[in-house]
Amino acid sequence: MSDEWTMEDTKNIAKLCGMIGKGVLLGGLGLAIGIPFLGLLSGDKEYPLE
Asked: Of 2, 6, 8, 22, which sits most exposed with the smallest number of CB within 10 A?
């Protein structure tokens, strides 16, 4: 195990950050789409998208 930072390490970190970012983006998008429909399912509003 060397103390040098290699390109392989950089690629692994970038891939990990990309996966985390993609997960956060998809989760946020799912919430943005899903939250109005939760109100619809609970019967509070008839048309949440208007």
From this structure: 2
